[in-house]
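To assess whether the prediction recovers the assembly geometry, we first specified each molecular entity separately, as shown.
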Amino acid sequence: MANATLKKIAQVLDISVSTVSRALKNHPDISASTKQKVMELAETLEYEPNAVAVNLRSKNTKVFGVMIPSITNNFYDSFVNAVEEEVKKAGYSLMILQSGDDPAIEIENLKIYRQNRVSGVFVCLSKETTNIDAFHKMKEANIPLVFFDKVPDNDAYDRVCLADKEAAEMAAEALLQKKKKNILAVFGNTQLSITKRRLDAFKKIMQQNTSVDVAYEFAGKSEEAESIAQRYFQLKKMPDAVFCMSDEILVGVMKCIQRLHINVPAQTGIIALSDGYFPGIYYPEITYVETSGYRLGKLACERMMECLKGKEETTELFVSSRFAEGGSL
Amino acid sequence: MANATLKKIAQVLDISVSTVSRALKNHPDISASTKQKVMELAETLEYEPNAVAVNLRSKNTKVFGVMIPSITNNFYDSFVNAVEEEVKKAGYSLMILQSGDDPAIEIENLKIYRQNRVSGVFVCLSKETTNIDAFHKMKEANIPLVFFDKVPDNDAYDRVCLADKEAAEMAAEALLQKKKKNILAVFGNTQLSITKRRLDAFKKIMQQNTSVDVAYEFAGKSEEAESIAQRYFQLKKMPDAVFCMSDEILVGVMKCIQRLHINVPAQTGIIALSDGYFPGIYYPEITYVETSGYRLGKLACERMMECLKGKEETTELFVSSRFAEGGSL
DNA sequence: ATGAAAGCGCTAACAG
DNA sequence: CTGTTAGCGCTTTCAT
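The predicted structure of the complete assembly is given in tokenized form:
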């Protein structure tokens, strides 16, 4: 007998709906005998509370939105994985919407979140987003927002980010320590704040050391990274190390390395910023500085929970980096 | 003025709630002038219907559940990606829950789906699931179920699957055509129905050709595949081709190939069953038979939509395979 | 063309 | 200890 309701139980037992409601919640007011009768009947009727009704009443859906450019991406995956794991403990579920890096869809999605009265939204901005007015509406609707990874340049919002600066610095220092002199550094889309932060930090370290040659290149996709690498490794003076800002770039560079049968680390060293999966699929494994989507997810959850508790001040939080020795440098 | 309601609009305009409701829906009964007034006010008040209330009333949440072992998996990703893309067109959203390959969590998750009165659930069984009684309850609750990939062995359910048989056959035939004589065939967890189907089909083709030597091995994870490959490639008589049942296995095998500096395809050929991303990251690119999570997602959606329209008979549907030449065979 | 009323399933203030 | 009542926001007969 599926889809039993409080009303049905009340009718069978000839008591009031509110008594049933309270009994099921183990309310102290209700007598033990009534409680038992109710509980038993609920059991046999396989009663399950209607979350939709509860939501309407309580004005709390216990659902978080997660908006990402695309779910087909290792980094966002592990973020989502962490968030799902974490919020489930508090009885929340996730409503995941992809923006496809399209600001118009992004706005659409926010509307869906509003209409569904989600308890909060985790958002990673699309590459194309420049105007964040649409996000103000969420504030007005009292829906807390926690931005992650691609975050707006605006102190009015809560943001959790990778420690891009720190990570890029660690990688740069590792390169210097290994006495690399002729480095190819491949970064991603220059539009992105994460690219800028990583680039600035990397450059800063490198500039302290004038004896090192660094070529800076930018690739939006794996294929571009591959052809950039191809170009550099065909020079008479091959790079003695490559820095890859992301997994996507690493994958492109490594394809070139395989194509040209370049020996790592003998002929050239490789270091990447990565979440950790891709560095492990190559031999030798790639040395990387961890930028963990998983830990970012956990941090974002912490922050979200604080928002729910009514924290007012917005902050920008960072996930620290970790150096992981592979064997490629 | 966020969170306007029909009631609020009605009060301001001094008309009834039902009129407002109708006006907003462009109901023919309502006069043009009233409609206009209502629409305008709704606009300025930034009225947005409360989906929760609508759901309660209509008993239709317009949310689908998606239950997968883990979201951190390329194949499920592309499945989810396709589903999200597709159902959005019909105004549905997704509630994704991970089972972590734990049957107990699976049951928990079903409960969450029931309580939230989702319109249907897409489910990929966990590796460990043997008893599917818990899924019967969903039927009783009138929540349609569409199983995908790891499906129960039970005709009472709707299932959409990869054409495992066909795909394995295509790969086997490609190996024969290339005159490979000493093949290492690595499959996944023997418990899984998908492993069985692929293995059976592959074996059947191979057995028709007695002059070919095939070693069958099984690996639960990438690392195991790697060490299996390692073992075989250290034999005096190296395999002249490797068949990889999945991306996970391919990744493991390729790591070994890199470690031992084996030349592909000169020294050994590689062929895989894959969704297409991983084969493309190696050089030469890996020849594979496509088993697309994306297309599976689309198919699953079609089936779900039919269920919603009240189709009674359950079916098992297959996504056809496609041969993709890489250069590794 | 519009309104009143009932109800989706649940909770909680108030009353007894 | 239990019941009555009201209401969350919306849709939909049924009247008028």
